[in-house]
Amino acid sequence: MSEAQHYKQLVDEWLRLDQNPETRAEIQQLWDSNRLSDLKQRLGSRIEFGTAGLRARMEAGFSRMNDLTVIQASQGLAKYVLKNVDNAKEKGVVIGHDHRHHSQTFANLTAAVFISLGFKVWFFRQLVHTPLVPYTVKQLGGAAGIMITASHNPKDDNGYKVYWENACQIIPPHDSGIAAAIDENLEPWIWDEKLATESPQSQDPAEKGVIENYFKELGSLSAFRADNEASDLKFVYTAMHGVGTPYAKRSFEVFGLKPFIPVKEQVEPDPEFPTVAFPNPEEGKGALALAMKCANENNARIILANDPDADRLAIAEKQSSGEWIIFSGNQIGTILGGATLERMQISGEPVDKIAMLASTVSSKFLAKLAEANGFLFEETLTGFKWIGNRAQELEEQGYNAVFAFEEAIGFTVGKVVRDKDGVSALGFFAEWAIHLHNRGQTANDYLESLYQKYGYFVTDNSYFICREPETIKKIFVRMRYGDHPCPDEKYQYKLNYPATIGGHKVTGIRDLTIGYDSATPDNYPTLPVSSSSEMITFKLENGCVFTIRTSGTEPKIKYYSELASSSTEQARKELKVVVNAIGNELMEADKNGLEGRKEA
Length: 600
Known about the structure:
Elements: H1 3-17, H2 21-32, H3 36-43, E1 54-57, H4 67-84, H5 88-91, E2 93-97, H6 103-116, E3 121-123, H7 132-140, E4 144-148, E5 157-163, H8 174-183, H9 195-198, E6 202-203, H10 210-219, H11 225-230, E7 235-238, H12 245-254, E8 261-262, H13 289-297, E9 302-306, E10 313-318, E11 324-326, H14 329-347, E12 354-359, H15 365-373, E13 376-380, H16 384-396, E14 400-406, E15 410-413, H17 422-438, H18 443-454, E16 456-465, H19 469-481, E17 500-501, E18 504-511, E19 516-517, E20 535-540, E21 545-550, E22 556-565, H20 568-586, E23 595-596
Parallel strand pairs: 2-3, 2-4, 3-6, 7-8, 7-9, 12-13, 12-14
Antiparallel strand pairs: 1-5, 4-5, 9-10, 10-11, 14-15, 16-22, 16-23, 17-18, 18-19, 18-20, 20-21, 21-22
C-alpha cells in the first residue's frame, strides 16, 4: 500500500466518524491539497490519554482536541467508571468547563455521553475555576469529575482533566485502564449537545449549594478577620483573561479583605488572551507588565495573579526601592508553608500530626521545616495527582495534611480541595501579607527571616533541548553505567553512577526509571517507578539536591537543582558550580550537541 493510499484510508475513516462540518472540511481540504505531512501529524497517531487526561491543539484529527476525540474519550471514560465505581450512575459525574474556544461544546458532548449511559450528570451552567470540579465530586459524592480546560496553555489548545471518586486527579492504573477503554469505544454512539442542559438527568450543582459551601470552607481558613477588615494594604489582581475574577472576589470577601484593584484589561474571560503572548503568570514580568503598571498607578504593593483556570497563583511584591520581586513557586511555597506552621502554633494545635507535601522537583525547605519542628514531610512524584492522592492517604492514617505545593506555582492550603487551588491560596496569602504588614514586615522580609532561621535555599531550574531520542538514551545510560558499560553474565549492566559531581561527593542517588534508591534498605524507591521516562535524583555532600528528567511532551532534558547555605550569595556561588557540572560532566552538552543552557 502506498503512502497516499494509507492516508486515504485514514481520511475516509475520519470523514465516516466525524459529524462536525468544520473539522470534516479541514481534513478534506488537507487531502484535496495533497498535504500528506499534515495528514500524518493529524491522523497518523491518536491523542494519548494519560494521568493529565488529554491536552492538545484544537483542530481536526485523531491526535487533536475536537468533538470526535472528546466524545471518544468520554465513551471510554464512561465505560471504565461504570465498571470500576460502585453505583456510578447514581453517584453521577461532575462536569465543568472554562472559557476557551470550544470548551462549552466539549463539555456538552461529554455530558451527553454519560447521560446516554444512564448517568446522573452534575453539569455546571456557569464558567468555573478548575478546583470547583474536584470540590463538587467531594461534596456530592460523585463517581468522577471532568474539567474542560487547558489551564495556562496557548489559546489554540484545550484539555480534558479527570478526577476520580476520591476527588483527586487520576493516577495509575486508572490512566492506562481508561486509555484502553477509549480504544474499545471509538465509534460515536451519541452526538447531541442539547442533552447536557435539557435532559432531566442533568442538574446544575450550583443549585445544590456547592459554590456556597466551597466559599464557606474557604472562610474557615481565615484567622485574622478583624485585621483584614481594618487594613489599608492594597492588592492588585489579574485573572490573565481567565475565569478567576468572580472566584477571587469571593475569596477576598470570605476572608474579610477589602476589595482588590483589578487589572481591567485582563479580568474578564477572553479566549483570545489579547494582552499576553502566553497566558501564564509564570512567564514573569512580561505576563505581569499590565499588573505592575496598574499597581504603580494605584500605589499598591502586592500583585496576585491567577492562571486562566485559576488553579495556580503567582505573586509579586514591590520593595521600598521601587523594584518588583516576582516570587518563584518555591519561594511562595516557603512563605505559605512557614505561615501555615506559624498559624497552627499560634492557635495551639498539635504539630506532631501535621503533614506537608511537595513534589520531588520542588524546594526541600519544607523538609527542613519539618525536621526542625517535629512534623511529617513527604515528597511525591511531580504533579498534584500524586500530591493529592498521597495527602488523602496520610489523612486516612491520622495525619493532618494542611499544606502542599509544587514549584510550578501550585498550592493547596488547608483541606478544601485535594488539588492545587489558586483561589484559596490567594485569600490565605493576602491575609498573611496583612498580618506581616501589621508587624512591620513585607512578604520578602518574612521569606528572609525563614531563610535566616532554616538556611538560604537557592534553586536553579532549566533544561537542555535534545531532538535525538538516541542521544537522550545515551546520556542516561552513561549517567547510570559509566563511560564503558559492560553487561554481566545475565546481560545486565552494572550500576556505576558518578562518585563526584562538580568536585562534590555523591551521597545519595534515586533512580525512578530503573527502580534504585541508595537510601532504602533494599535499594528500591518508596516513590513509584516508571520505565517510560527518565528521572534520576542526586544528593551531594555539600547539601545540593538535583533531579534530571525527560519531558513527556517536549524534546527536553530538564533539571531542577537546589542548595541551602549560610547566605543567598554563598548558595548561588556553590550551586553554579554544580549546575555547570550537570551540563558539562553529566550531559556532556557540547559533545552531544545539546541546545540550551550551558552555564548557571
